[in-house]
Task: structure prediction
Amino acid sequence: MGVIDINNITKDYGNGRGVFDVSFTVEKGEVLGFLGPNGAGKTTTIRQLMGFIKPDSGSLSIQGMDCFKKADKIQKSVGYLPGEIAFIDSMNGMEFISFVAKLKKMNGMGRAHELMEMFELNASGKLKKMSKGMKQKIGIVCAFMDTGADILILDEPTSGLDPLMQNRFVELILAEKRRGRTILMSSHMFEEVERTCGRAAIIRDGRLVAMEDMGKLREGRQKTVEFTFSKAAMAAEFASGFPKAACQGGSRTVTAQVGRNLDAFVKKAGMYTVTDLNVRTQSLEEFFLHFYGEGASE
Result:
């Protein structure tokens, strides 16, 4: 049994909406990415973990506690960042953070000030006047400030953050990983999942389509390699040795998608005079769309 256990849960809202027979486990000290497009079922699954909704069938547990029956205890002991944060608009940011600390029965503010400094957050303003990015920072502070919470459940945590703050968030996750915290993080930001997670659960249309090791995902990604040779004849001769290589007539440039045959591809090119080289690695988003997107079943 893992720290987080999801066993064959179904929550059917009709018309193909919901989640269907989803199962996966998050082990102690693991950072697991929960990937899928908007509407795939990530938030529905997370809301069941937090005890906000009950599955039609199946079960969920955190540290052996039933997520619906023990929802109060779980909500106080887990660092949670919802996809849509319910703020009290009459409060300012500091008042809201303090309010959440009291709900969790924390002794003081924990790491709140450290996190506010990390994310360059001035929480003195009224919540109703804050931007989406500012509100997201407040949510991150609330989720991470309790040093006693060894489990974090994060729903689209970098939504609304600029690239600099997204990088700060990745640094935060890596630091929490080193501390041994167990983290489930839903996202469609594949780069942050690639940088932080050991495994990824991939959901599509409410069904879990794969549980992948991130190392294997990286190995399986295609690279688009573009060689430019000194002469068109070299390019044509080189391309003839690779069925998937493309070289337009008279062109000195050869383009090919390569995976595990990259070494052979580069060594072969070394037999000719190469004047330019470009390499673009397939993003994880493109990788997932290729294997799990439209037409994948075909």
The chain has a mean pLDDT of 89. The chain is about 35% helix and 30% strand.
